[in-house]
């Protein structure tokens, strides 16, 4: 792993204020964090509280609306999550695509809105099991990214992270092989070079997500072109999340 690995916990629809102690515990185990960049994306309701609770780690949101303000009952804009303390937002997660019918075009306008609001984007992509079985995973992911990334970016390296999350690996305990992850990440890197040029593309981190846990993290993080992990279930307790952070630090040292 070339640069500092980036380990991000996506709490999804989990967590009340009782979980702030987990965020605090993650933050306080900062000894190893010098080698690893660590962040949490709690639900909207906890962004501000987590932001106030932590000193070392980043805090972000799991989604935002494409607009800036207005008559959108129940929605939250990028500027609002930024105001609550979010420094990044996860966009295009497969659960948003599936459960809320989010299209690539909508996701692209959310990406633009987030960048406009001055927060970083973790853009998710990933194929279904059917698409992988058909041998079309790489072309599918490439189409997803082409459809949801802005055509040009001034500083992709500073504002953009990609997360490859095969849908069939999310919450299932199944993961692709290290070779398959490496092949997909190389394909994503090639697309970034095509879109933004070699220099900028080289600095965009590409995370792997899907059933990452403390036991498999070391192997998965050592795969080619993997710059970190987006973690769901195993980010819900400090103990398991820190196990992954530790694995990332060990891979970094190798
Ligand atoms: O969707 C994910 C993170 O965004 C992955 O979730 P799990 O780690 O629970 O498989």
TrEMBL record:
Catalytic residues in the record: 93, 165
UniProt keywords, alphabetically: Cytoplasm, Gluconeogenesis, Glycolysis, Isomerase
Record-linked InterPro entries: Aldolase_TIM, TIM_sf, TrioseP_Isoase_bac/euk, Triosephosphate_isomerase, Triosephosphate_isomerase_AS
Amino acids binding substrate: 10-12, 171, 211, 232-233
Recorded superkingdom: Bacteria
Primary localization: cytoplasm
UniProt EC number: 5.3.1.1
Catalysed reactions listed for this entry: D-glyceraldehyde 3-phosphate = dihydroxyacetone phosphate; L-erythrulose 1-phosphate = D-erythrulose 4-phosphate
GO biological process: gluconeogenesis; glyceraldehyde-3-phosphate biosynthetic process; glycerol catabolic process; glycolytic process
Location relative to the cell: Cytoplasm
Signal keyword on record: no
GO cellular component: cytosol
GO molecular function, one term: triose-phosphate isomerase activity
Entries under PROSITE patterns matching the protein: TIM_1 (PS00171), TIM_2 (PS51440)
One Pfam family it belongs to: TIM
Pathways per UniProt: Carbohydrate metabolism; erythritol degradation; Carbohydrate biosynthesis; gluconeogenesis; Carbohydrate degradation; glycolysis; D-glyceraldehyde 3-phosphate from glycerone phosphate: step 1/1
Known partners and oligomeric status: Homodimer.
Family membership: Belongs to the triosephosphate isomerase family.
Function recorded in the entry: Involved in the gluconeogenesis. Catalyzes stereospecifically the conversion of dihydroxyacetone phosphate (DHAP) to D-glyceraldehyde-3-phosphate (G3P).
Protein name: Triosephosphate isomerase
């Amino acid at each position: 792993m070339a640069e500092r690995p980036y380990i991000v916990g996506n709490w999804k629809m989990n967590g009340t204020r009782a979980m702030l102690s987990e965020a605090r515990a993650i933050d306080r185990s900062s000894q190893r964090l010098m080698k690893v960049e660590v962040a949490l994306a709690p639900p909207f309701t906890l962004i501000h509280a987590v932001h106030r609770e932590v000193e070392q780690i980043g805090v972000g949101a799991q989604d935002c609306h494409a607009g800036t303000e207005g008559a959108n009952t129940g929605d939250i804009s990028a500027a609002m999550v930024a105001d609550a303390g979010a420094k990044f937002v996860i966009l295009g997660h497969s659960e948003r695509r599936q459960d809320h019918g989010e299209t690539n075009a909508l996701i692209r306008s959310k990406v633009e809105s987030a960048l406009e609001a001055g927060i970083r984007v973790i853009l998710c992509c990933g194929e279904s099991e059917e698409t992988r079985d058909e041998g079309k995973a790489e072309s599918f992911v490439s189409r997803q990214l082409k459809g949801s990334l802005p055509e040009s970016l001034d500083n992709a390296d500073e504002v953009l992270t990609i997360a490859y999350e095969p849908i069939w690996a999310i919450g299932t305990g199944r993961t692709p092989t290290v070779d398959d992850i490496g092949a997909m990440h190389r394909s994503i890197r090639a697309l970034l070079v095509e879109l933004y040029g070699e220099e900028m593309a080289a600095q965009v981190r590409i995370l792997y997500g899907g059933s990452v846990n403390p036991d498999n993290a070391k192997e998965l993080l050592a795969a080619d072109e993997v710059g970190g992990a987006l973690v769901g279930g195993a980010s819900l307790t400090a103990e398991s999340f820190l196990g992954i952070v530790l694995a990332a630090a060990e891979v970094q040292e190798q």
